[in-house]
Every structure is written in C-alpha cells, then in structure tokens.
C-alpha cells in the first residue's frame, strides 16, 4: 500500500432538514484498501457513501481525493464536469439494484464498451474485444455479448454491472450492498469473484453492507455505524473477533446466533 491516502474524509455530516443522515465521520482510505461500512438499517451507511461519492453534498465537512496528477482536490469544489469525469474513469459505483447501474435496453457488450468510449477509446474492434474479455472475467459467456441485460438473471446482471465499472481500471469503487438482492448461493460466488478482482486489480473500495460475513470476506478495515455516527472502527478481524463497543458486540453476537 502506498503511503498517501486516496481519500481523506474530515468531519463529514449530512442532515436531511433536522434529521441526521450521518455525523462527524472522519477516516482515510489508502490505495488498495477495502473498507466495509456496516450497521443496522437507517444507521447512515448509504448517506455516508453518497457523500463520499459526490451523489450527495455533505452539510459540513470535507472529502478530498488524491487525483492521478498527485493533487488533493476537495470534491465539493469540483465542477460538475470534473466530477462526472471522475465517476466515468477513476471511480466505479456498483448499485445494489443492477438496473440502477446498467442500461437495460442496450447490449451487454455496449454496457461495458460505453465506459471505454467515455475515456476516449474509439476503435470498435478493440472496444468489442475488451468487452468480451471483461464478460469472460465476470463469468458471462461471450456469446451473450449482444444480449440485453433484461435477458440476464439477477446474478448475471450484477456481474455485468461489475464488468462495466471495472473496465476503465478505476482506482476506487463504491459498492452499496452489492450482493443484497441475490440468493445465497449466487451471493457466495459473486463475493468470491469480487474478492479476486479487487485483489488482482489492487482496487480501493468502500463497501456498504449489513452482512458481517460480506465485511469479513472482502474488507481489510471496517467502520460500524449507529444513528449516523461511526461508533467503532478498526481492522476487520479485530472488530469482528474482539469488538470493543457494546453495540458492536451485540451486532456480532446476534449475527453469529442466526
Ligand atoms: N432523502 C432523505 N430524506 C430524508 N431523510 C433521509 C433521506 N435518506 C435517508 N434519510 C434518513 O437518514 C438516516 C440514514 O439513512 P440511510 O439511508 O443512510 O441508512 P442506511 O444505513 O443506508 O439504511 P439501510 O440499511 O436501510 O439501507 C435515516 O434516518 C433515514 O430515514
Ligand atoms: Mg442503505
């Protein structure tokens, strides 16, 4: 891991009117590091992820990103065009519902190829070859390249969404409950795939999940949220094996007893 953080998050809060979304969250994320955000429903996980990924503007606090040119940029001070460019190139965002992250009425190949075109690739043959290669990497038969995601199963759609996000070699990927809508056997396989890709590509990732098994499998570090605040954070194995906060202990034990 590099010595310089990719993301620096300082005292981020988001209020929806008088309701707290998340409050006073600070952390740093390093290149190649996978951070899991866990906590019960309504604890602020999606709100925080949205603030990090510029989908929401924090009410207060600063999120800085280490650009490829070596500069830190305050995301709130970027132009809309700059933010969109980051989203299309350096970042990926994997939605819980694949339909939110795919174009359902264009082919699988176009879903992947479109991102390459967005970073300036114009050669049809290269784009199609890269798309086919990525379909293979996410275990979709290459002869499905001209099918629309509408004709795919839920697990295939999620794998296609992952291919679409990773084809541009992003440095940072945000995932909100990436296995949430899938049945258990499909989840396990997808998690294996995500773990392999994140490792092989040296990706940094922020993964929101309510499932501690997902955090255990994918993340190096985790943050536990409650009522909008981070109440415990640390290395994933430490937090899960030796939780310090009573709330985390409850979370860990209640999951283990299921
Ligand atoms: N658009 C919104 N307007 C008003 N309040 C909101 C909005 N989005 C979220 N909230 C509130 O912010 C708090 C945190 O919600 P958030 O969606 O971040 O939780 P979460 O941890 O992602 O929950 P879940 O596991 O159910 O997805 C909740 O009290 C929620 O009601
Ligand atoms: Mg959520």
TrEMBL record:
GO terms for molecular function: ATP binding; ATP hydrolysis activity; lyase activity. Coiled coil: none annotated. Residues 7-252 form the ABC transporter domain. The keyword Nucleotide-binding applies. It comes from the Bacteria. One of its GO terms (biological process) is organic phosphonate catabolic process. CDD domains: ABC_NikE_OppD_transporters. Keywords: ATP-binding, Lyase, Nucleotide-binding. Belongs to the ABC transporter superfamily. NCBIfam families: CP_lyasePhnK. This is PhnK protein. The gene is phnK.
